Amino acid sequence: MTFHIITIFPNIFDSYINESILKRAQEAGVVTIVMHDLRKYATDKHKTTDDTPTGGGPGMVMKPEPIFNCLKAIREKENPDFKIQKKSKNIFFSESSPILLMTPRGKQFTQKDAQTFASKKLNSVILICGRYEGIDQRVHDYMIDSEFSIGPYVLSGGELPAVVITEAITRLLPGALGNPDSLIEESFSKKLALAGAERSAGEYPQYTKPSSFSPTKELELTTPEVLLSGNHEKIKKWRNQHSQ
Hints:
By secondary structure, the protein is an alpha/beta fold. It has one domain: 3-Layer(aba) Sandwich (Alpha/beta knot), CATH 3.40.1280.10. 27% of the residues lie in helices and 19% in strands. The protein contains seven helices and ten strands. It has helices spanning 14-17, 20-27, 64-78, 111-119, 137-142, 159-170, 232-242, and strands spanning 2-7, 32-37, 50-51, 61-62, 99-108, 124-129, 134-135, 146-149, 212-216, 219-222. It starts with a strand and ends with a helix.
């Protein structure tokens, strides 16, 4: 199984993935871990991966285009004949390669989830590491299969959750652990499965520039008009209505 990790800080992972279980699993050919520097997929000269929130607000929001470009490159390397899945909720859908977004508003990742991914004999798992105030909602809506967090708290980014999920799945794969008897304790893993955390109260969809993003000629992904209106009362009302 290949783990593709999309991040703006690829060097964060160097030490951890080259030690212990993950190191041994890679050396044994059980898994391959590939880092994708998101900045390399930005198209402007400054390699911009974030911008200000459309409609106002604090912080920065990660842009959709670099993430789209990175996912497209991964899919085309896996399958040169890959085409955008226009009739699927996830335009990059692949049954053998799920795309997971690391975000505080996602379902809490449990041992049961790790078992599910490990048992599917997947070709790969793609993990997108969020940063800043969030990721443009069009990524949530059109480019992923699942959203996960690792607990009811907020981190600075999705890098630590990506490592946690990668290791949790890897250690369940045949040949990952030096001593297979170590997995005997996994017979009790159902007791470890916790209910996934729901989306935090007060969270609302975030968008940033551009307001219209067309990854293909046939596909246009747009920002809700109310966020472009400049009417702060309407924007506040819209955000309240869409908060969960």
